[in-house]
Description:
The complex is a heterodimer. By secondary structure, chain A is an alpha/beta fold.
Amino acid sequence: MKRFDCMTKLAARLENELVILSLGASVDEWYNAAPHMREASLFQQQLGCVTPQAFGLAAGLPERQIVSLDTDGGLLFNLGILATVGNEKPKNLFIVVWDNEQYQSIGGPKTHTASGTVDLAAIAQGAGVKHAYTARTLEDFDAHCEAGLAAGEPYIVVAKVAGTVQPEIKRKHSDGREDKYIFVRHVEKTEGITIMGPSEHN
Amino acid sequence: MQQSAVDAVIRGLRRAGVSIVCYLPDSLFKELYPALDADPDIRTIQVTNEGEGAAICGGVFLSGKRAALVMENSGLRASVEPLARMGLGAGIPVVMLMSYRGDMGENNWWAVPHGITMEPVLQALRIPYVVEREEARIEQAIVDAYELAYSSYYHTAVALSGSIVR
Lengths: 202, 166
């Protein structure tokens, strides 16, 4: 199962959601797989921060569906967030974990899931996230996206994907600061709120 | 903490517009956490480590709500990675309120590292901070920390010490 194909399936189901996603090649893949979601996606380069940030966003915007696109390496970096999500049970957080069993962006050294003994979905279930599944086929993944986006409670799908990157995709040129401004302005526009407002005159 | 100091913290958070507090409980702020839990205008989220709390606070910032990360100052060390990446990499601010273990008067050997490392770590991350030891200064210090964080889009910190937490 290829991550890019999974992203294409997920992207087709998204319209008004907000997305926080992880680092590495998955950033450029998502940029291409979901061009209509570019402003609604925060592209971060932060191992261990993705699902916590998505949960914080979900807590701040409880009426908005939030999607976390995390990774095996990123989630393993901070497994504690699963216990927090299990306790807090946000109604609007759908978590996808791209599990390619490797640290792809630095050339492919294995992560702990490569051993076959570490089961992220089982860890999530043990942390109290009842809906935590592993998907190994595109059809299965797509079905979990449909269910997870409508679940009304935390839902995690660990997508077992190949360690390949979609060839000839357009690279994203913006950095973390520009990405943040783009994302914040999109949230402001779609929520009708001010997050980063004008300075005082004094 | 005296009840009056707890009240001052909550007044400051309210004036700053804080509606979500992430915390990992500690001993010096022992009385503060249940008061935050009981406050009808504040949602508390207990986290497994302070770095996770920092990242959650970053997500709350992106929602337009205001969050605080409340912790012992040892939690600053646990938060350095997300703070560096969010603050220096993206300009996503986190406002921290921490108890100052290891300050003058510390009576536990295990807390000494917290005092030795707190200010150098804050300075290494270029995080503006104040250390308050007088209860009368708590409320305004918290308000001021939010003003600067939302002007600079960078982290700020308030450390409470002395008679406030003893």
